[in-house]
Amino acid sequence: MERRKALRNMGMAMGWTLATPTVMSILQSCQQEAGPTWTPVFFSPAEGGVLLQLVDIILPKTDTPSASELQVHAFIDSYMEAVPPRAEQDFMKMAMGAFIAKAQADSGKETAEDLTAEDLEPVLAESLAKRSPEEEAVIMEAIGSYQEAVESGEEATLDEAISRYSFANNLRGATIWAFKSSEYIGEEVLAYLPVPGEYIPCGDLNELTGGKAWSI
Prior knowledge:
By secondary structure, the chain is mainly α. 60% of the residues lie in helices and 0% in strands. It has ten helices and no strands. Helix 3 (45-58) packs across helix 6 and helix 5 (86-107) packs across helix 6 (117-127). The radius of gyration is 19 Å and the shape is globular. The two termini are 35 Å apart.
């Protein structure tokens, strides 16, 4: 595989940010099937518990619902089961494993089931700490080399800190995208116009919507 393609695929799971019919169908299905219990289909029950806590750390409940209240965790789980190829699924599992292992080591917890939001939040913050352009270039190069090794069938290893960074970055992006794309946020929080009217290409956002972004 060409290095340029490997770098373009940084994270290996960014495809979920594309509003394709398949992705939107999964999102709508997860919201319609919201309930008090949830059984993950891609992640293990322990990983699912960690995922549920992480999406709420990223987007907690304020004057809007938390990410888990809008079934963002269920969307991410269903997406990973149905959409990406096996290589991307394996990468997600590996990267999440590195993240959970760090949280367990730092907290002294024996199992992922024992991890709490207080255990996970510092690992997430560390993983998402701002990097310099030079540091990001090193990370991208390492992920590209890892992907090339996977593609060629060679033994592939990736630094655990880079794995955690990749997992946290992708999770944050997916959480925010799914949250903003939910029906509730689209209709109740963002500027919502179900029947578009006059097209105003350069209008002032404060005048048009009271400062709100448009619902997609």
